[in-house]
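User: I'm putting together notes for a lab meeting next week and I want to include a structural view of one of the chains we've been expressing. I don't have a solved structure, so I'd like a prediction I can at least talk through. The sequence is below, exactly as it appears in our construct file.
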Amino acid sequence: MEDLKTFITDMMKSDETKGGYFPFFFLSILYGSSVRLRNSCYKARMIKRRRLSCPVVSIGNITVGGTGKTPMVIMLAETLKQEGFRPAVLSRGYGGRQKEEINVVSDGNNILMGIQEAGDEPLLMAQSLGDVPVITGKKRYRTGRYAIDHLEADILLLDDAFQHRSLERNLDIVLLDAERPFGNGYMLPRGTLRESKNALKRADIIVITGNDGEEKKLEGTGKLMRKYTEAPLFYASRRPKSVIDGKTGGKRPLDCLKGKRICAFSGIAKPESFRETLISLGGTIASFIPFPDHHVYTKGDIEEIGRRATESSAEIVITTEKDGVKLIDFPRFLQDIHLLKITMKITPSNHEFRELILERLRG
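Assistant: Thanks for the context. Below is the predicted structure for the 363-residue chain, given as structure tokens.
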């Protein structure tokens, strides 16, 4: 028995040095096997896929964590509106408490749910897009039918749906993080991969995402992708667009942060990237408070942020626009802070990206 315990302990230590933990190793094998079996069934048409009466575009990734899906969905919805389409966004509604089959966050005229019911990302998309309906629900076919039948949508954007294979789509756009496109290389739960690298063969367009100024890193990851896919390749840089005054909702120029002592906090997948962005804008980070992705802020969190801002003599307290959505329940605090609004810049060009999408949709 002691020999067995020693063996298991040694294996756990060995596994930990490789980026995971021993029990997760076996769970990852089971998870990976189930994913491969499921994909094989779809490839062999053993599992039926359903089709809706209008074009469907999926925006997703193959890892858990932030790759810029939300700003990409927002950008695509705005682009399609400009081209005369009536898009609707379909999200699973991660973090939202409303668990009906069809949850209308926004009908394109009014926002009908709050942060607790909708979840942070669906609410952010609803606020950012205004006249574009946003619906949550696990079964995208049903939410899609609702958007077509009741909200006059003529094109559907599926948020985070590369693995949602039960619904046919006209276009699969897959986003990969430039720094760690495959996470630590392991499948869930030992790593962050939802699918293997070979899943990229299903993608119609690959977008490598990173921060502004990381062009070499983006291109390096792009070259690596050629081992796994021949899909058209684009690069997307997350760029700060403006600073939003929490009190008035008005936009301020980015240079309002230059030379200022900043207390920053964020609950996104890669909070360090937010910190680096603020530094690139000329701010001095007096205090930085990271929270987990999709973090639900509490009164204690708000008090801690206020204390840290005071102790560090911060001139400005700032967070991301996504975090701002999660602070609606603290209106007085929200009025005292600023939000950084982010946009995406596509290279080689936004025009080429847009034309390729329109060509695929019309084809």
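A couple of points you could mention at the meeting. Confidence is low (pLDDT under 50) at residues 1-20. The chain has two domains: 56-238+345-362, 247-336.

User: Perfect, that's what I needed.
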